[in-house]
Amino acid sequence: MNWKKQVIDFIETRLGIRDILEQNLTKYLLPRNINAWYTLGAVLLTLFMIQFATGILLLIYYVPNPAEAFQSVERIMNEVPFGWLMRTLHAVGANIIIIALLLHMLSVMFMASYKRPRELTWLSGFIILNLAFALCLTGYLLPWSQLSFWATTVATDAAGAIPLIGDDLVRFLRGGSMVNEATLGRFFALHVMGMPLMLGLLIGFHLFCVRRAGISRAPFGPDYQPREHPDHFEHEEHHDGIPFFPNYVIKDTAVICFFLAFFLAIVFFAPNLFFPESAFEPADPFVTPPGIKPEWYFLWAYQALKIFPSEIIGLGVQGAFMTFLALLPFIDRGAERRPFKRPLFLTCYALGILLFVGISIWGHYS
Amino acid sequence: MTTHVTPPQRRKFLFIILGGVGAAFTALAVWPVWRYLLPREKTGEDAKIPIAKADIPLGKAHFFSFRGQPAVVLQPAPGQFVAFSAVCTHLGCIIQWQPGKGECLCPCHAGRFGTDGQVLGGPPPKPLDSLPATVEGDQVLVG
Ligand code: HEM
Ligand code: FES
After folding, report:
1. ipTM for the whole complex
2. Is the peptide bond before A290 cis (omega within 30 degrees of 0)?
3. Collapsing DSSP states into helix, strand and coil, what is residue A56?
4. Which of A56, A62, A197, A323 has the highest local Cβ count within 10 Å?
């Protein structure tokens, strides 16, 4: 075992890894009243790693060409050993990631962790959420099934309602007037290279923000006192806190296992939960299948477009809502973070979730 | 009777249990990925490859793909067909047919092979792998 010690000593003398580990594990103290919702970030990191790994594996057999894409996915599902596993993990994983992203966002929102000094953490997270939506949208086209083709047609068509530039924008998104080979080319490039790269950078920035500002104290319990953040930079210290390792790592691991169990239960017992009938037919540009609906997380937007008398109003309202969410920390600036001392916020929060769920269900059945 | 477990013993026990569970899950995850990545055997792998006699005129060579590897079939004498792998036994370049000389030349380091696949000169250490070729009607079956 002496060589092991020598290797470790060699690296230690040069890079001082032990110190970094200590600062970020055992000496990294978290607020005493931290709760399970703070594990969602670690859950998301795990899920994204799985998505990356399965995505790279799928690329080995996937062919990004309208003539062969559908067949290549069929081959992955039916012939390549464990191809069904990799693809189902990837396709179901995308849905689980969206669930985890939404929960993460709602929990930091409830605890008002987006407030000063964490505005940039929120903003980068919000961009990550949108990037994940865009990854789902572009990935959806790749199997080149009827579902892929028509869902993409409908989704890109919505951009046409924007005045003046609408038609040109649709053409630009599709790389032509209709969804075709060119669309697959650009969506493929974005899905496997462009957006994962941006996503990686943004996740790095998000984590940097989290670490630099320090974890926020949960706004609950008798000891919690809201306080103004000073005008200069200040790392939020928790001298009486609990160590990240091993205390919180255990909790992270437990919730990650819970998510993986839920994830794998769908993969093994309900693999087709997210695949409607039209996902199993190759794309046919001349036949629109009846009742094409977007994925569940886009239903609210789909229905919102239908409710308003004109598409442009619908798009405008959606755009305004998303902008409001993005800028939330710059709009809601009071120091108070305790949800029950913020009745207006709490009402909007609850109604907002009900509205999202309600409109989505309406969209599903309409 | 109370049994006393010391912290180091507890630590060791937990380490072994967690390590074991971790190793089992890792193996469970690695196995599908390994199988997924293994080169896949093509079906019909042992089928014979038919080549029309008309494609192999006297003194000429016909290159084709044999079970995923380049191969060549020759007609050195009327009605006599021979086939061998076109992969040079030196460093794996693909040999060329030299109609004028009636022999094969490897372009990489000038290895030379006769129409029976034997080494005539150059660095190749052993003859080209020969493939069974049989005549059936107007076809030559290789394999
Ligand atoms: C490096 C990262 C990634 C790579 C290399 C990758 C690669 C691929 C490939 C090759 C496909 C086509 C095969 C198939 O449809 O199953 C695909 C599909 C898909 N991807 Fe990704 N992907 C990555 C990340 C993501 C992320 C982060 C998400 C979402 C959050 C995502 C969501 C999807 C979706 C929804 C599909 C369609 C699944 C289906 O309907 O079959 N991907 N991806
Ligand atoms: S590889 Fe053919 S002679 Fe060297």
Report:
1. 0.85
2. no
3. helix
4. A62
In the block, tokens 């755009």 appear at: A319
Q: Are B128 and B122 in contact (CB under 8 A)?
A: no
| Cα(A139) to centroid(ligand 1), Å | 5
A146, A281 contact by CB (below 8 A): yes
For residue A19, pLDDT over 90 is answered with yes
A263 to A52, A275, A296, B24, B103: CA distances (angstroms): 16, 15, 16, 19, 63
Predicted local distance difference test score (pLDDT) of residue B44: 56
Domain ranges of chain A: 31-220+239-365
Give the model's confidence band at B40: pLDDT under 50 very low, under 70 low, under 90 confident, else very high.
Answer: confident
CATH number of B49-142: 2.102.10.10
Question: What pTM does this model have?
Answer: 0.84
- Is CATH 3.30.420.10 correct for A31-220+239-365? no
- The pLDDT mean for chain A works out to 94
Question: Which amino acid would we find at residue A155?
Answer: A
Judge if the beta carbon of residue B104 lies within 6 A of ligand 2.
no
The number of C-alpha atoms within 13 Å of A308 and in the hemisphere containing its C-beta is 15
**Mean pLDDT over the full length of chain B:** 90
User: A86 and B40 in contact by Cβ < 8 A?
Assistant: no
